[in-house]
């Protein structure tokens, strides 16, 4: 795989006919990877940066998958005594069912839909995505960035993969040795190949006319983008 150029090869998980048991195994292993390699910690960092002095906050995740990011955020905000409202959006009903089962909170709402078709009665304070953007083309991402801006009242953040040759071969070896999911073995390294460089993010942000966005590199091989209204 040549990672100098971004790959647009479809991931297996993007297919519509994946058995639920395979999706569930994939989600379990991704949660483990996110925990061990600091992915959840990056999500918490992004949310904390935008929360400020709010004592009650509404956070929406697009492409929420099995809800593991929201569980991590619920644990964090509970410790901070901040009242939290969650909205999780995913296009796959199987993911919504798993997420709803994990996050059994009265202030959690889950929507099975393309994120772009969702209309909020009241804008969430924060919208975020984690390992979601690399599923889209550059043109789709420009729209997505603008949508996140227009539908959030405080701002949005993105936690996604850096495309890097070391990241590609590292995750390829790790998943080949330890994964029991054919989806993870195929899609984890492919996700890196579909990821971004910092310069590519800067181009996308310019096309989306987003000026107030901070981009920081995070371990391991990720970028955290934070946009704040009126920064």
Q: Specify Rg, calculated over alpha carbons.
A: 17 Å
Distance between the first and last residues' Cα: 39 Å
**Global shape:** globular
Helix and strand content put the structural class at alpha/beta
The oligomerization state is single chain
The biggest sheet, with number of strands, parallel, antiparallel or mixed sense and barrel status, is:
7 strands, mixed
Strand content: 15-25%
Total helix count? 8
Q: How do you describe this structure in short?
A:
By secondary structure, the chain is of the alpha/beta class. Helices cover 44% and strands 19% of the residues.
What does the model show?
This protein has 231 residues and is of the alpha/beta class. 44% of the residues lie in helices and 19% in strands. It contains eight helices and seven strands. A seven-stranded mixed beta sheet has the order 3-2-1-4-5-7-6, sandwiched between helices. Helix 2 packs across helix 3. It starts with 19 loop residues before the first helix and ends with a strand.
